[in-house]
Write a structure and sequence with these properties.
Elements: H1 3-12, H2 16-24, H3 36-50, H4 64-73, H5 77-100, H6 105-108, H7 121-130, H8 133-139, H9 145-162, H10 182-194, H11 207-219, H12 230-236, H13 240-256, E1 264-269, E2 274-279, E3 282-292, E4 303-312, E5 316-317, H14 320-333, E6 342-344, E7 369-372, E8 383-386, E9 395-396, E10 410-412, E11 416-418, H15 421-429, H16 436-444, E12 450-463, E13 467-468, E14 476-477, H17 484-494
Helix pairs in contact: 1-5, 3-5, 3-8, 4-5, 5-13, 9-13, 13-17, 15-16
């Protein structure tokens, strides 16, 4: 074997897939051959690696300068063989990172159970050989509108950060229409820098400032009362750097999602407390949601699955964790407690509570199942929407309607409660019946637990985004309710991602 091929075989040997690729291609050059096509590949790769920071990736990870130096120093066939493999490894590393992220979700937080789909590396190599190198590099990152807008927002914020951000923070805990003074001026100036208020010299909290505050509140998931209270001022005072964290984390999260979300899909954003139906990129239905409370065993997980059916008039089969942690202590104090729930034994027979000494049981040996039959009081309400998953998470109705009026809505045991479950059902059934409302209520009024299959199964994506960028208007930001974004940012930073790697 010539010296070039020997070097390729030797230096690709620690990468089974890459070694197979070179072997199947006769150990020929991918990058270091003579001619325009090889020059274009090298140029496209180096340009992509040097621009890695514009995708929120760690530039040092790809060592473009080292590769350039190696190219200049390569004189012999063996040198060129070593270089060819080095360029291929850098390309595949960059392709994997920019396509699917540099972190593994489950390594960061146990609630991020999302499975990331990695593209076959041989396909990436084949694309490079068979396509225009510059276009191949351009198509590696996610092509979603959201990713493109997030990237643009990242660059904008980096430019703002380089020029002092949004200026002075606003002191105090509450400002409202009619107030005047230094704090109002600082609020005015900050709103101007943020783009919510036009040029103004007012010293008074006037109608224009009130309107600007309302717009800010809407974009940040706050009650739009036009009053800069404690929570609003807290969000107004968040520095550019922290918003930049959110955007760069959102870009990494976008890389984790499947590129094909489904022409019709359900999107639940845990930080936004909403559930939406998306049809061809447009929101066709939206409702408020309640998500898992911020406790170890109650936080809602993040994953994608497929909704297959709904159950009308559902029975609530109480999860064992709830049964032993919450209801067993009640039964030990009073066997007739929680009388709306039924206890059944291993054979499914109803248990007579009066004949049971509940004090003999603990979390490890409690032998009964607890169920709540269909009713208006059922914890699942009158309908639940099923996408079978190991986390046993689903969307459902709830009798606890008052929670939907709150600004922060993290109160459930992990499942997603919907404010408008009936309307959600109608929207799903509209694809398979001319009278979705009538179909649903005909089943509902029987009072019997009934399964309605969806003719068209629908992908469900439960995500966690503290930064989103709509097609029109300013970026929307939400609080990091479970602290997951903070963990991701720390991991990105440890991997070498720099906050100010690109400046406008």
């Amino acid at each position: 074997m010539p010296a070039f091929g020997q070097a390729v075989a030797e230096y690709a040997s620690d990468d089974r897939e890459l070694a197979r690729f070179y072997r199947e291609n006769g150990f020929g050059a991918v990058w270091t051959g003579e001619g325009e096509e090889f020059r274009q590949r090298r140029q496209a790769l180096i340009s992509a690696l040097q621009g890695a920071a514009t995708h929120g990736l760690p530039v040092a990870r790809y060592d473009a300068d080292g590769l350039i130096a190696q190219m200049r120093a390569a004189k012999t066939p063996r040198d060129r063989g070593m270089l060819d493999v080095a360029l291929s490894k850098a390309y595949l590393r960059y392709a994997r990172d920019v396509q699917s992220g540099i972190l593994k979700p489950s390594n960061i937080d146990e609630g991020m159970v999302r499975t990331v789909k990695y593209r076959d590396r041989a396909e990436n190599m084949a694309d490079l050989i068979n396509g225009d190198p510059a276009k191949v590099m351009q198509k590696l990152p996610p092509q979603s509108h959201e990713y493109i807008r997030l990237r643009k927002e990242m660059l904008r914020l980096q430019g703002l950060m380089a020029h002092g951000g949004w200026g002075e923070t606003v002191p105090g805990k509450k400002l409202e229409p009619g107030d005047r003074g230094a704090s109002v001026v600082k609020l005015r100036n900050r709103l101007m820098r943020m783009g919510y208020l036009g040029r103004s010299a007012t010293m008074v909290y006037d109608k224009q400032i009130e309107s600007a505050v309302q717009m800010f509140q809407a974009d940040h998931g706050l009650s739009t009362d036009g009053v800069a209270g404690d929570s609003t001022l807290s969000e107004i005072n968040v520095p550019v750097e922290q918003r930049l964290h959110s955007v760069m984390v959102a870009m990494e999260r976008e890389r984790w999602l499947p590129q094909d979300r489904g022409a019709r899909h359900v999107l639940v954003n845990l930080t936004d407390f909403t559930a939406k139906i998306i049809d061809d990129g447009k929101v066709t239905f939206e409702t408020r949601s309640v998500v898992g409370m911020n406790q170890h065993d109650r936080r809602s997980p993040e994953f994608s699955d497929t909704m297959e059916h709904m159950i009308v008039n559902p029975t609530w089969n109480v999860p064992r964790s709830i049964a032993v942690k919450e209801y067993l202590p009640m039964l030990q104090k009073d066997p007739n407690a929680v009388s709306h729930l039924r206890l059944t034994d291993a054979r499914g027979q109803l248990v007579n509570r009066g004949e049971v000494d509940f004090t003999q049981f603990d979390k490890g040996n409690f032998p009964f199942d607890i169920k709540q039959p269909p009713s208006n009081r059922n914890a699942l309400g009158l309908v639940k929407f099923m996408f079978p998953n190991p986390q046993n998470v689903y969307l459902h109705d709830t009798p606890a309607k008052s929670l939907f009026s709150r600004e922060t809505r993290a109160y459930s045991h992990g499942c997603i409660r919907l404010q408008k479950p009936f309307e959600f059902a109608y929207a799903l059934l509209a694809r398979q019946t001319d009278d979705p409302e009538g179909t649903f209520h005909d089943v509902l009024k029987t009072g019997r637990e009934t399964k309605i299959d969806l003719v068209q199964n629908i992908p469900v994506h439960i995500i966690y985004r503290t930064a989103t960028v709509p097609a029109k208007g300013k970026a929307h930001y939400r609080r990091d309710v479970y602290g997951r974004d903070g963990k991701i940012w720390n991991a990105l930073e440890q991997a070498g991602v720099a906050l100010d790697a690109v400046r406008g």
